[in-house]
């Protein structure tokens, strides 16, 4: 589908794609280290973590586009000179698929599956975790005399109260609050467990960093030497 006159720029090597995948792992490693370093330093690391997470997301997105290139996914002709941005690769592939080409998806990767799992974890609102049919409240709206159309309170384990919160009796409200308390406690516990695991992994990465390896890798010293002498002798 590429323009025959255009230089062949839409390619990716297996080594390149694997390197990007490794970079995602290294970035996650950095995040785990930050989670753990909070045990050593009384600072709020949320901004640092959010920055790293955002970069890891960008690299993951880029890796997906590179994976499409590696699979020789069909692409609509590029509308700009030079290499495409990752999102343009997705768009060009989508356009080619629309025109009848075979759809490809970025390859599966362990880091990708783990990232999806980590994202999903404790941010789920478990009090809303009933996905089937939700009965309506059996109460009546005082002003209009019509049936209330709110959903009945969910009490957990697939059971509902007769009424929505505003029409429910104190006993129903109490059962609802008990259910929410149990959910919140379960959520809190699973979150803490997960944080504890992440912190322990971060700790072992830090130990690895400092065990048997010089804190400053040789390239850092060499590059610093060159850069500093360049500055002295411009
Ligand atoms: Zn109601």
Average residue-wise pLDDT: 86
User: Which ions and ligands are bound to the chains?
Assistant: zinc ion
SS strand fraction = under 5%
Derived from helix and strand composition plus strand pairing, the structural class reads mainly alpha
Distance between the termini: 48 Å
Helical residue percent band:
55-70%
Question: What profile does the largest beta sheet have?
Answer: none
What's the Cα radius of gyration? 27 Å
Uncertain parts: 1-7, 123-127
* Number of structural domains: 2
Q: Compute the number of helices.
A: 6
In N-to-C order, the SSE pattern is HHHHHH
Structure summarized in a few sentences:
The chain has 234 residues and is mostly helical. The protein contains 6 helices and no strands.
Descriptive notes:
The protein has 234 residues and is an all-alpha fold. It folds into two domains: 107 residues, no CATH class; 107 residues, no CATH class. 55% of the residues lie in helices and 0% in strands. The protein contains six helices and no strands. α1 packs antiparallel against α2, α1 crosses α5 and α2 crosses α3. It is flat. Bound molecules: zinc ion (ZN). The site of zinc ion has 8 residues, from loops. The site of zinc ion (ZN) has 8 residues, from loops.
